[in-house]
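Protein data:
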Amino acid sequence: MDLNNLTLELTDRVAVVTVNRPKSLNALNPDTLAELLEVFTALGDHEDLVGVVITGSGEKAFIAGADISAMKDYGVLEGRQMGKLGHLVLDTIAAFPKPVIAAVNGFALGGGCELAMACDIRICSDNAKFGQPEVNLGVIPGFGGTQRLPRLVGTGRALELLFTGDMIDAAEAFRIGLVNRVVKQQELLPECLAIMKKISTKGPLAIQLCKDVVRTGMELDLARACRYEADLFSICFASEDQKEGMTAFLEKRKADFKNR
């Protein structure tokens, strides 16, 4: 892959994707979005991958938002195309079959907050700032922010953030459930990699099905979601993972799951 706006590193079967546009605080322009789509599409073919960590280069920003300079002169058609591209990329990240962790260092505003919310887990440094400031620009969030934010923090808190455009700090983001953990900046990437290492010891099929059933179930009523869970639970019993996991438990040893 020819990447100009991202870097990609593989460490212990974990892909670390870094948005690398520090001069623009890692703002998302169309080229960067296209590269994210290319990277996640390619990583989907790596069966032995444990998961992906997404972060931003430098100490100031995860992703400061979409690139305003690229959008200032857009008309309706260009705005629609940008929104569709953003949704395609973030939906691809959300639907990625392996766990995706956002390592949020610094500003995660607008499209940056939206990208973080498309990830499965959000870990942030203590200098992180979150917000959906689009109303300050006369627009609304266009990459799923109006939908993912209330699902994570509740309608009232989401609407307050959307209406005011206010930024919140890491402590407040943790308090309202927007992030899972807050760590010191130097501990951010090691913390994310440690979580991935723990995940790597679990049944890989079970991890994939957990992500599937949670994402799908959130869009269903409780009765249908529970039936879907029961269906995926039964599928586990056709797997080598289930045989190894339960045998290891009864034999009082650590399970040795095969990589996929």
